[in-house]
């Protein structure tokens, strides 16, 4: 009989392919025995799909513990990198330290309360968290600060100084956990596209509340706030105008810290463009969406630095912009012939034309991404390459569509062939409209309608 740990490696691969509902069901079953090391490892490996599907997962006390810093946990896949990132490998040693240092009776009581909650009960989790987080913060910080001989660091954190410092950051997040939970409710849903006055007021209120506990806590409030914004650099534009309460004197230091983090964050996100990594951009549409967000952050950061006469980051921001330009060029412009033209089939001759719906859908997405490049072209220095690509695609699409149109009369003898040929013609017309605009495609549209009308009359 096979052991569970023999079966798990094969299961992990299948969990990326099964339907969403079945995936959610398997995840719920795995979480019932998640304390097994192999099960934890499996859940870690399928995290990219967990993020994508977001099934209602069984609450655990460990997940409640992580709520104050969940917005800054490292991500798997994609190019989104939170500011002030906390590595997920810090969770287990932090959890073990808290469990060991906290009052056992209180810990067990919290654990029972969470186990009785239904999946996805955010309010119930927050109610437990408001009591748990301060106690956990005190236990964690106390254990870390009492570790004079560094035995704990070497035993539980493998002697990793970076992990040790992140554990201290976790303690700081936990200390203002209730404040952060209220702030997250005001900055929802994540990611906030535009920083509005109510959002600014909520950030200011949270910062003041944190400052009453400790002025150093304001930094962690601002990290969470920035991580919930579509453009984290937007926070820099209002930071000097925020009333931080008891942390007013810390404003210049906070601005310098956040500015450096924003720029480093942009650099790290562009570093994930490398096509040799698992985080490489997957599609033209994804590439242009990423580019839009990154350039918005670069432009906002540049504007703030110019206003404050801070030129120190200019060179680094220019390098970020250059990386975005290369990514857009490689993912959207250079791949346009294969991504768009390949969807228009050659004439079928005497046979029944093949209609490839999947290729057409991908080509339309690519064509939309190509048009969206227009808004970024000047900023990225891609105007001429974009114009050249659009011109080449327009000519090639028109020629391929005309070849299909010339071949259309051959389909007259078969209704199935005629229907497929018409669909391919209109799909080619759709691509031409997306790439060149309706005006450029009007002549082809009229020719298609005229030819189809003549054939119908002959029938």
Q: How would you sum up this structure, described in words?
A:
With 459 residues, the protein is mostly helical. Among the domains are: 1-58; 342-458, no CATH class. It contains 23 helices and no strands. It has helices spanning 4-14, 20-32, 37-45, 47-53, 61-66, 91-101, 104-115, 122-146, 151-156, 161-175, 177-186, 197-213, 218-227, 234-239, 251-271, 284-307, 314-333, 336-340, 357-372, 374-380, 383-407, 415-436, 438-458. Helix 16 runs antiparallel to helix 17. The N and C termini lie far apart (68 Å). The relative contact order is 0.06.
Give the topology.
Elements (H helix, E strand, L loop, with lengths): L3 H11 L5 H13 L4 H9 L1 H7 L7 H6 L24 H11 L2 H12 L6 H25 L4 H6 L4 H15 L1 H10 L10 H17 L4 H10 L6 H6 L11 H21 L12 H24 L6 H20 L2 H5 L16 H16 L1 H7 L2 H25 L7 H22 L1 H21 L1
Helix pairs in contact: 1-3, 6-8, 7-8, 8-10, 11-12, 12-13, 15-16, 15-17, 16-17, 16-19, 19-22, 21-22, 21-23, 22-23
Outline:
The chain is mainly α. 69% of the residues lie in helices and 0% in strands. The N and C termini lie far apart (68 Å).
- Number of helices, where a helix is a run of at least 4 consecutive DSSP H or I residues: 23
Strand content range: under 5%
Molecular shape: elongated
Look at the structure and give the mean pLDDT. Answer: 85
As a whole number of angstroms, the C-alpha radius of gyration is: 28 Å
Structural class call reads: mainly alpha
Low-pLDDT regions: 1-7
- Topology order in helix (H) and strand (E) letters: HHHHHHHHHHHHHHHHHHHHHHH
The N- and C-terminal alpha carbons lie at a distance of 68 Å
Give the fraction of residues assigned to helices. Answer: 55-70%
Total beta-strand segments:
0
Could you give a short account of the major beta sheet?
none
């Amino acid at each position: 009989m096979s052991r569970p740990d023999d079966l798990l490696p094969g299961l992990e691969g299948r969990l990326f392919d099964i339907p969403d509902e079945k995936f959610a069901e398997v995840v719920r079953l795995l979480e019932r025995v998640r304390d097994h090391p192999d099960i934890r490892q499996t859940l870690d490996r399928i995290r990219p799909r967990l993020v994508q599907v977001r099934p209602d997962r069984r609450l655990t006390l460990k997940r409640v513990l992580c709520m104050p810093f969940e917005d800054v946990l490292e991500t798997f896949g994609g190019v989104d990198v939170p500011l002030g990132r906390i590595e997920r490998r810090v969770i287990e040693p932090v959890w073990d330290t808290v469990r060991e240092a906290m009052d056992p009776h209180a810990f067990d009581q919290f654990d029972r309360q969470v186990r009785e909650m239904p999946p996805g009960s955010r309010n119930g989790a927050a109610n437990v968290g408001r009591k748990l987080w301060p106690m956990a913060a005190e236990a964690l910080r106390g254990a870390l600060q009492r570790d004079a001989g560094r035995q704990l660091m070497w035993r539980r954190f493998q002697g990793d100084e970076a992990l040790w410092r992140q554990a201290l950051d976790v303690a700081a997040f936990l200390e203002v956990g209730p404040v952060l939970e209220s702030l997250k409710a005001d900055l929802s849903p994540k990611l906030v596209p535009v920083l509005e006055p109510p959002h600014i007021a909520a950030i200011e209120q949270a910062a003041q509340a944190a400052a009453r506990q400790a002025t150093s806590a304001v930094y962690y409030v601002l990290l969470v706030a920035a991580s919930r914004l579509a453009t984290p650099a937007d926070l820099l534009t209002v930071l000097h105008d925020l009333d931080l309460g008891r942390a007013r004197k810390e404003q210049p230091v906070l601005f310098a810290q956040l500015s450096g983090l924003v720029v480093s964050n942009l650099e790290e996100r562009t570093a994930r463009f490398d096509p040799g990594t698992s985080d490489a951009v997957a599609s033209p549409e994804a590439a242009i969406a990423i580019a839009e967000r990154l350039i918005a952050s670069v432009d906002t950061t540049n504007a703030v630095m110019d206003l404050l006469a801070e030129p120190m980051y200019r060179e680094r921001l220019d390098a970020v912009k250059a990386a975005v330009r290369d990514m857009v060029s490689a993912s959207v412009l250079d791949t346009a012939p294969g991504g768009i033209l390949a969807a228009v089939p050659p004439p079928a001759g005497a046979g029944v034309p093949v209609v490839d719906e999947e290729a057409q859908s991908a080509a339309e997405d690519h064509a939309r991404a190509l048009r969206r490049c227009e808004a970024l072209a000047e900023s990225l220095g891609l105007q001429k390459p974009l114009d050249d690509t659009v011109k080449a695609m327009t000519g090639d699409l028109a020629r391929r569509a005309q070849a299909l149109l010339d071949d259309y009369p051959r389909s007259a003898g078969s209704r199935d062939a005629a229907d497929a040929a018409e669909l391919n013609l209109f799909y080619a017309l759709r691509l031409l409209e997306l790439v060149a605009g309706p005006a450029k495609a009007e002549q082809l549209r009229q020719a298609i309608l005229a030819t189809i009308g003549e054939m119908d009359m002959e029938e």
